[in-house]
Amino acid sequence: MIYTVTFNPSLDYIVEVPSFQMGMTNRTTSESIFPGGKGINVSMVLQNLGVESTALGFTAGFVGDEICRLLQEKGCHTAFKTLPEGCSRINVKLKSADGTEINARGPVITEEALEQLMQKLDMLEKGDVLVLAGSIPTGLPATIYQDILHRLAGKEILTVVDATGNLLCNVLEHHPFLIKPNHHELGEIFDVTIDDMEKVKIYAGKLQEQGARNVLVSMGGKGAALLTEKGDFYHLPAPEGKLVNSVGAGDSMVAGFLAGWLESGDYAHAFKMGISAGSASAFSENLATKEEVLALYKKLK
Ligand SMILES: Nc1ncnc2c1ncn2[C@@H]1O[C@H](COP(=O)(O)OP(=O)(O)O)[C@@H](O)[C@H]1O
Ligand SMILES: O=P(O)(O)OC[C@H]1O[C@](O)(COP(=O)(O)O)[C@@H](O)[C@@H]1O
Predict the structure, then answer these.
(1) Which residue range forms the structural domain that includes residue 58?
(2) Atom of ligand 2 nearest to the CA of 93
(3) Counted domains in the chain
(4) In what residue span(s) does the Carbohydrate kinase PfkB domain sit (predicted)?
């Protein structure tokens, strides 16, 4: 079974504000609401691709209830821990200024709730897949993903981590199967600007030296690259299409890669499925459907 963990789920409130002006009253021309948070998006795209998973993590308040309701409506399995206080976050995304977003901090996770998640994760068995994705609410240490992987060490679980900064770097000693920084996040780790493929390869290699097995680097509209544990380096430009909503493109890429890997054990296929799923989500209002992913896959070299 695949388990995704989202410590900090959200409702993504995506608004179109044609000419956003700071310091002024701005008005929207469209609004949509989707369940969000990185692990949740991975679960939803896996579901669209016909791959079952269970979404774990923490929810709180009426926003948390709505996140669960929307996921269940989509047919996703959920087993969130409800927090006693606070409210899950609402993240605001400005569609017309792509990439501009305000992501909230999220509710406080109690020690008791955290221990309950740990106990759930203790049940994972050989062959299971664990996806740890997204930021963590304030108050939790940047070692939390590392602590989880430490607890599961030796169980032969396929682990995927999509996180930034120390949260990501701290897990590398546990040899995650896959990490997926985007090129900005990769650059921030080493305090460099990643602006060409040579640098992608060099700095992805440095994360491998620190312990990552496979490093998938997404580059938005410029495509993506994969440095595998065998030392193969693949890179592809993004397929052509009209950008509609890039929220969740990175998470879709993780889901596409996983689905492709699990069905074939072939890195080239998994990589192409990742790019296709990322771009198919970027080209649609909602997260990518299977048909949209496969249509782009066919066009890739
Ligand atoms: N503007 C775009 N046009 C085409 N594909 C895109 C675009 N933005 C994202 N994608 C696809 O989604 C993948 C992940 O996007 P990216 O923005 O790099 O991830 P993240 O959301 O994690 O920063 C890219 O590698 C690409 O395949
Ligand atoms: O956990 P973080 O880093 O705050 O990010 C959460 C946000 O990222 C998303 O998961 C989208 O991520 P990507 O665009 O990187 O795929 C949103 O659904 C959510 O609002």
Answers:
(1) 2-18+28-299
(2) 20
(3) 1
(4) 14-289
